[in-house]
Design goal:
The protein is of the alpha/beta class. The chain has 16 helices and 13 strands. The chain has two domains: 244 residues, Rossmann fold; 173 residues, Rossmann fold (3-Layer(aba) Sandwich). Strands 3-2-1-4-5-6-7 form a seven-stranded parallel β-sheet, with helices on both faces.
Length: 429
């Protein structure tokens, strides 16, 4: 039982609270809604490949996990009322799931990211790249004294933290051996870009879609502990739709915003493949005299200078954005172009913004994610002019659109954060 005035939430997660990733933004939306009901103390335990000087962000306490020996020590110090973490199978999520159970602290996991099925030929390769891709660990730079340890070293440090946690809670030796065998196998052979397993199952799991729930049940998760609430990240869009005017007002040029995804940062594509796709697309678009093209690079990209150099290689005048709000930018553009699994696709569907999704790489990553009845898909650059025109003139059946939204993000009613908060308060109280 908690006091009615204040609760303490422990958030062990890879990225800091000012990151722009889907998981972080979703958690922030939940916390924002929770603060409307009760005072909240937030403690973020960050897993990064660099040690950084502790810095608080507004009312948020930010700590690197290596400031402590194990997860039990962290729980004992801060005495959280609930532990909230991304449900993806990671070494650290296992540590906190086990420690929370030992200390009788409620644990809540989330599955809000898109369900991305990997191409069969790249299952193992993609997973290895993801585990050891350093950029995936350092997406958000924090002013700090950096520890230049490589990713493999970071992996060992994570394992050490877990083993210390296991020792502290007197974890069964048989279960430990089973985990050490299970973890690499699940990580390497997961059919999906996100690996998951019941070994870190919390007492409550919040899912964006029914599809996510079904997958977790098949994995052995307790169905009674799974709640489908939608995706909190998009609650703010529900209220903004009526205030955004997408009518084409530029009579001279069709303004196109080309948005990149973080494919090589997450180890899905090589940098050469992604750079080639971007350059080829920009060059093709600029063959059309009525197009005016700008490039918005993904906010997790570490260096905007790399893209300035890339644009320079095209010898074209392309405006470049990075940190600017996508919702503000799209008011100025007629068509959006992107590739890969991206929240931008979701936002365009929700806001009825014309969009063209590139599927130019021989990879089935997004082929099963999106419906061509709602999204224009370009599989050959030679057809992109027609695809852009079709996107602008597309009439979407409302029933089909609603089904697509349900598959992508679950519920879209502006109440996802409210449902998440109500479920979290239940497990605390």
């Amino acid at each position: 039982m908690i006091s009615q005035e204040k609760i303490t939430i422990l958030i062990p997660i890879m990225r800091p609270p000012n990151a722009t990733s889907v998981d972080v933004k979703a958690i922030n939306k939940i916390i924002e809604k929770l603060k409307e009901k009760i005072e909240v103390r937030q403690i973020w335990i960050i897993f990064q490949n660099t040690k950084f000087k502790i810095q608080n962000l507004n009312d948020i306490e930010v700590i690197h996990f290596e400031e402590f020996k194990n997860a039990v020590e962290i729980i004992e110090k801060f005495q959280p009322d609930v532990i909230l973490f991304d449900g993806e199978l990671t070494i650290l999520s296992v540590a906190f799931a086990l420690a929370g159970k030992k200390k009788e602290t409620p644990t809540v996991g989330t599955f809000f990211i898109p369900e991305i099925e990997k191409a069969e030929s790249r299952w193992i390769k993609n997973r290895i790249q993801m585990i050891f891709a350093e950029k995936a660990f350092t997406q958000v730079k924090i002013d700090s004294e950096l520890d230049e340890s490589r990713a493999i070293n970071f992996l060992f440090r994570e394992y050490k933290f877990l083993l210390r946690t296991i020792k502290k809670i007197n974890f069964n030796l048989f279960e430990l051996i089973k985990f050490l065998i299970t973890y690499p196998r699940v990580q390497l052979f997961s059919r999906f870009h996100v690996a998951y397993h019941k070994i870190n199952e919390p007492i409550l799991t919040l899912c964006s879609t029914i599809s996510w729930k079904d997958k977790l049940v098949k994995q052995g998760f307790d169905e009674k502990k799974l709640k489908v609430i939608g995706t909190p990240l998009y609650d703010n869009l529900f209220d903004k739709i009526k205030d955004i005017d997408f009518k084409h007002t530029n009579l001279e040029k069709i303004k196109i915003l080309f948005c990149t995804a973080s494919m090589h940062e997450h180890g899905i594509w090589s940098k050469e493949i992604e750079d080639g796709l971007i350059k080829n697309t920009i060059n093709k678009l600029n063959e059309h005299e009525d197009f005016q093209v700008s490039l918005k690079i993904h906010p997790v990209t570490s260096s905007i200078d790399e893209y300035k150099k890339l644009i320079k290689e095209t010898k074209l005048d392309v405006k470049l954005y990075q940190k600017e709000s996508f919702l503000e930018l799209i008011k100025e553009y007629d068509v959006i172009i992107t590739y890969g699994p991206s929240s931008i696709v979701h936002e365009c569907v929700l806001l009825r913004k014309p969009i063209v999704l590139l599927q130019l790489i021989n990879d089935s990553l997004t082929e099963s994610m999106y419906d061509e009845d709602t999204i224009n898909i370009c599989k050959n650059l030679d057809n992109i002019f027609n695809d852009i025109n079709d996107a602008q003139n597309k009439t979407i059946n409302q029933t089909i659109r609603d089904e697509q939204i349900e598959n992508m993000i679950g519920k879209f009613d502006g109440e996802c954060s409210e449902r998440a908060v109500n479920e979290i308060l239940k497990v605390i109280r």
